């Protein structure tokens, strides 16, 4: 009986150690952190980004009118 308990305890220890060393979820965590940082930067610089995009589209519109005429 005591031998059986030791084997079960060893299996549980091995399974716990394997679970602790498993790092397959680290990639997901890194991607989530990067996305959070990017979203934060977009929120912080929202006005500047909007201005740059508006200027770019205005420039494209003006230049395309010059090409078409």
Mean pLDDT: 85
What share of residues is helical?
Answer: over 70%
From N to C, what is the helix and strand string?
HHH
Shape, per Cα inertia axes: rod-shaped
Largest sheet: none
Distance between the termini: 95 Å
Strand content: under 5%
Structural class, by secondary structure, is mainly alpha
Radius of gyration: 29 Å
Q: How many strand elements?
A: 0
Helical run tally: 3
Low-confidence stretches: none
Characterise the protein shown here.
With 69 residues, the chain is mainly α. It contains 3 helices and no strands. The protein has helices at residues 2-21, 26-44, 46-68. The chain starts with a helix and ends with a helix.
Short description:
The protein is mainly alpha-helical.
Which features characterize this protein?
mainly alpha; 3 helices; 90% helix
Task: Compile the SSE list and pairings.
Elements: H1 2-21, H2 26-44, H3 46-68
